[in-house]
Automatic annotation (TrEMBL):
PANTHER family: SLR0142 PROTEIN (PTHR37314), UPF0700 TRANSMEMBRANE PROTEIN YOAK (PTHR37314:SF4). It comes from Flavobacterium suncheonense GH29-5 = DSM 17707. The chain crosses the membrane at residues 21-45, 65-87, 99-117, 123-141, 184-206, 212-233. The keyword Transmembrane applies. This is Transmembrane protein. Coiled coil: none annotated.
Length: 251
């Protein structure tokens, strides 16, 4: 689900990508709200808070909101920079570095209480880490799926879902109705898995706190492992099939 791009990418690849990483985003979203009362999967609301602090003259309080926005942007920048660098060098695993970086960030925050940070390293720093991680994920998913999948926020998703559901009422007998139906199903899947992530993240947070993010890191690790196993299984199967065909052709 990570390595296929362009014409080689199918609806199934996007569905697997969307379900896994929207679940991760839901967990991060609930942990951010419960642990530090901050949105950590998108930056839309932070623009409003930043504007409020600026207008009321609370410039020092406005700075963290500006940094929230910056770290999400920085995550997206770093993610795509890694992807483009790998593509330029013709590497097969262009998704590996961004994903490993996201896993590392989630683990770092999940083990936050063990790092013996001073009081100066507070909730804002946790938000910076998580927004950076979600910027990485959002850019990676957008790039791989060619803007078909979004996993870290639902505003645009609900907009597209509303448009496509309305279109389906008019074009259900159209030749492209099948594609429209798949798009609707994909967006509903993202919403369901994001919501599931929020619910499970909330339940886990009340039991293990920030360590809930270790579960999110584990989910990404499993997705990467399964993706590699599926790839090598298919690669080996095709290789053996070619050898078998070549052997019987000669005979």
């Amino acid at each position: 689900m990570f390595r296929h791009q362009g014409k080689n990418r199918t609806f199934r690849h996007n569905l697997r990508l969307a379900s896994n990483l929207s679940l991760v985003a839901g967990i991060v979203n609930s942990v951010g709200v419960l642990a530090i009362s901050t949105l950590t999967t998108n930056v839309t609301g932070h623009f409003a808070y930043f504007s409020e602090e600026m207008i009321t003259g609370q410039f020092a309080k406005a700075v963290p909101y500006l940094l929230y926005i910056f770290f999400f942007f920085l995550g997206a920048f770093v993610s795509n920079f890694c992807i483009e660098t790998a593509a330029f060098r013709k590497k097969k695993y262009i998704h590996t570095t961004p994903m490993l970086l996201e896993i590392s960030l989630l683990i770092a925050v999940g083990l936050w209480s063990y790092w013996n940070f001073t009081e100066d390293i507070n909730n804002n720093h946790i938000a910076y880490f998580l927004l950076f991680a979600m910027g990485i994920q959002n850019a990676l998913v957008t790039k791989i799926s060619q803007s078909t999948v979004r996993t870290t926020h639902l505003t645009g998703l609900f907009t597209d879902l509303g448009i496509e559901t309305s279109q389906f009422l008019f074009y259900r007998n159209h030749p492209d109705a099948g594609k429209l139906r798949k798009n609707i199903f994909l967006k509903l899947s993202i919403i369901v898995f994001f919501f599931t992530g929020c619910i499970s993240g909330t339940m886990l947070f009340y039991r293990i706190g920030l360590k809930t993010l270790l579960v999110a890191a584990l989910l990404i690790s499993i997705a990467l492992t399964m993706d590699n196993l599926i790839f090598y299984y298919n690669f080996t199967r095709r290789r053996l099939k070619r050898k078998y065909t070549a052997k019987h052709t000669k005979s």
